[in-house]
Task: structure prediction
Amino acid sequence: MFKWANLFGKKEVNYNMPSPSGRNICHFTLQSGEISYSLERDQKPIIKNSSLGFKICGEKDLGRNLRLIREKRSKKNETIEMPWGEDRFIKNNYNEYAFYLAENSPEARILTLRFRIFDNGIAFRYEIPAQPKFQNISVQDELTEFNIDLNTAVWAIPAYQPDRYEYNYEKTAVFNLANSVHTPLTMCTPNGYYLSIHEAALYNYGSMTIKLGPNRILKSDITPLSDRTIAHLTLPFETPWRLIMLADSPTELTENRLMYALNEPPKSDFSWVKTLKFIGIWWAMYVGEWTWAPGERHGATTEHAKEYIDAAVRLGINGLLIEGWNDGWEGDWLENGINNSFTTSTPDFDMEAVARYANSKNIEIVGHHETVGFVDNYEKQLEEAYNYYAVNGIHYIKTGYAGSKMLINGHKEFHHSQFGVNHYQKTIELAAKKHICLDIHEPIKGTGIERTWPNLLAREGARGQEYEGGALSPSHACYLPYTRLLSGGMDYTPGIFDIENAVKRISTTLARQIAYYVTIYSGMQMAADRPHVYEGRFPKIFEFIKAVPTNFERTIALAGEIGRYYVVARKDRYSENWFIGGVTDESPRKVSISLDFLENGSYEAIIYTDSEDAHYRDNPFGIVIQKKTIGKSDILDIYMASGGGFAIKLQRLP
Ligand code: NOJ
Result:
């Protein structure tokens, strides 16, 4: 492989790389030994000339003084089938260009740059082959730029903060970005195109954040390790794909699934993976009725678990999360996590008995591991901890990494550093071996690796409903579909019906709580409130939660504006039924929904909307339920109250 470095190469090149329809054109340039790219759509500039390359510790920069040895073109037009998710089929249609480059120096280091140009985005990655004098390297910086107009609007959350990805989105302009921000980084150019910069297939490398460089150009800022490098690598190595999703409207952007197309298919059989809906010994802790730690109000007792299993059966929900079952929660658990045991339960909780009982009732237990970021403590117990669940017939685990950083052998690392990325991957692969599915809280962001590892069913990775009680405005859930959710599903913990609870007041209407099951996808979807609230006060509304699927055939974004509102329709993977959900910010609004996406025939529609006098602050319980027979020629006029939403179930009539 190394031989091609000895070939004669071109010093100056300029390639036009069109997408299959020709609408997007990416340009690759080699000039004076330096590599760069730019991007246009409809002949209008999106990304102007942007540098590429690396700073390597103790070596010359890689990406300078290069010549082009060889160029290889290929194309693909296929449809990928996903085992679960928002869309069963994903189009993977691109033109690919690989540029094989070598240095004009005695070392003659080599590097490949691979581009894939799609009609709805572009992606490229660096591939560094193994070379005699270049085997173990430490990367100091990745020099990838995204040279976008400074007046581009951007919706961002800050990176390197104590609460990881859990911040409120803010709209600003690129020229105003003072600090690094996370991806997916969603933007709207002055000429009206929507795009989101993100990455796909993040393995063994720091996660990419984006910052405005001193030259006023957006640049990758890869999350560093505590030794200030961004990755220690043994070559060969391929970086994650640098992905730019492109769309003509914000709703079209939310349908972009390129991130999955850029990941590899699974290497083993994952047919055992099943999406799940679950209740939990959980919200009772948030509203102060129960505690994680043992004591008089301990939530995770054998008795409570059995009661919740019975409730799950009555509610028609298949899973039960149990938090606080294990040793280590005493005192301030956010400080004391170093002592957590993942294999010993508290005296009032009998894991074997609970698991047996759940099994006899066909309820899946969702086990829980809260590491509090003490990753060394967790890694020491990892094999045993996963075995413990496996022998008890438990197939789902929710993990957690509360804490501002991960702790390992006395030093701290960012959750989204190369260290964190590798730790999460270790848990995913171990879980896969034991046929366990994961729901990771305080996770690494999604980069589509669920395609390769379908047992990674869910993650949190943004402010979820537990932040309610003041820290979430109604606009938050109207930002998520256009930003965070471009990186995959989110365990938002929807379904809180006890809205006016004195300890955790929720900024919502009742209809909005069920809308979330459609607007925020998750492969593991929680009905987060306590069963007595569902059964005693709102059995009719709960019917929607019971019916809504966790695996969809197709998703169509119907209407929306970033941070203002979002309306989406999804077809069940296993029936002819459709589900529609919508959420709005503080502004009440009316939406007209054309049902022309439906198949021919009649549907029974059950429509849950805010009443005209509903309001997230003053009248959150104002809800109207209507039943109608409708078809594809109908238009539904729906009202959403301030901070409200709506949900519709469309059942195909025979
Ligand atoms: C934070 C998680 O997001 C939450 O769901 C969990 O209950 C707590 N950590 C405790 O593990």
